[in-house]
Predict the structure.
Amino acid sequence: MIGGGRVRERFPVAWTLASGDTQRDIDEAEQMLAARRHNIFKLKIGKRTVRDDVQHVAAIKQALGDRASVRVDVN
């Protein structure tokens, strides 16, 4: 043990959704939520137009609602 012992039981890790297909990414996120594996999702964006990326992210967040946190990685 370093520093006096365990501080956390869990450490949150984001699951990357990078298919680029909105419905496929929603389905994958739903599977992770159902399995209770992840509730933080990172979306890879930047290859499409800004408008398309915004629509993609918004659709995923709307589908997942408050059950999940959605973040973006632009590159």
